[in-house]
Amino acid sequence: MLQNVVVVLLDGVHPFELGVVCEVFGIDRSDDGLPAYDFAVASAEGPTLTSPAGFTIGTRHGLERLEEADLIAVPAGDSYVHREYPPELLEALNRAVGRGARVLSVCSGVFVLAAAGLLDGRRCAVHWRHAQELARRHPHVRVEPDVLYVDEDPVITSAGTAAGIDACLHLVRKEQGSDVANAIARRMVVPPHREGGQTQYVDRPLPRTRCDTVGEVLAWMERHLDREVTVDELAARAHMSPRTFARRFQQETGTTPYRWLLGQRVLLARELLEGTDETVDAVAARAGFGNAATLRHHFARWVGTTPQAYRRAFRCPEPARTA
């Protein structure tokens, strides 16, 4: 059931991430035949909160409002990555999940859910800039830095700002159907669903964590992205059986060898599209996709756009010529 929605705030909350949840769940669209949510904004730190944008936010609700919610959303905020959180908030989030409610984070709001222990043993999304810190501070959390959002029901996490829209619309689609989610998206003038992930926004390959036994194989794979390899070959390089290698690879990277390799190939293709004049065919060959059609297929699925469109959007401009 998705009817009673609360967004809970801490001091320093970011206005846009708060606005994302308010826009999806806080506007009455019943005149269009859409659900009207019982929506509220609650504070975990007093009736008046500050924002880094220079204004204050007041609300009459405290943590008691969380006790009846079907969904509790935690938006991002200033210094959420490093700060401590009120124990009363963490306890309230655990009680909510214990009675069957869902929790959803936007960007750095994920650190609140991690501090509550709600992400232990679960996959989660986070802004790519915070992925390494989240993995370091919470080693029992399976961080997936390439995705826009992760649904590990009853916990839903999203990456950067706009990914909060994706996660909220995903939950609406899951609970109330595509027609409702699509109608809300049209009112917001946003795509109802985006393919791909954060890869197109990451400015460098992400560091690997917890790769104790497959690290050397990963380094070899990175140097030979243009080669076709099998799990048997990779397992032999790691001196393991294919079954053991596949299991350890999943444990240490959070994904399969095939999907990890695809992700690295897409990253290389992105760099070549940004920084070279090579044709799409040449980029496909260097990145290990073989031909432009295969590159376009995987690029669209991972990045959400075509190689040519990505090049137009992210290609560094030519330096101005001087006389």
Brief summary:
The protein is an alpha/beta fold and 323 residues long. The chain has helices at residues 15-25, 87-98, 110-115, 131-137, 163-176, 178-188, 215-223, 231-237, 242-253, 257-275, 280-286, 292-303, 307-314, and strands at 4-9, 38-43, 48-50, 56-58, 71-74, 102-106, 123-124, 142-143, 149-152, 155-158.
Please summarize the sheet with the most strands: 6 strands, mixed
Strand content: 5-15%
Gap between N and C termini: 67 Å
Estimate the mean pLDDT confidence: 88
Spatial order of the strands in the main sheet? Answer: 2-1-5-6-10-9
**Fraction of residues in H or I helices:** 40-55%
Tally of separate helices? 13
The residue ranges in which pLDDT falls below 50 over 5 or more consecutive positions are 202-207, 319-323
Work out the radius of gyration: 22 Å
Characterize the quaternary organization of these chains: single chain
Number of strands: 10
Structural class: alpha/beta
What gross morphology would you assign?
Answer: globular
Helix/strand order: EHEEEEHEHEHEEEHHHHHHHHH
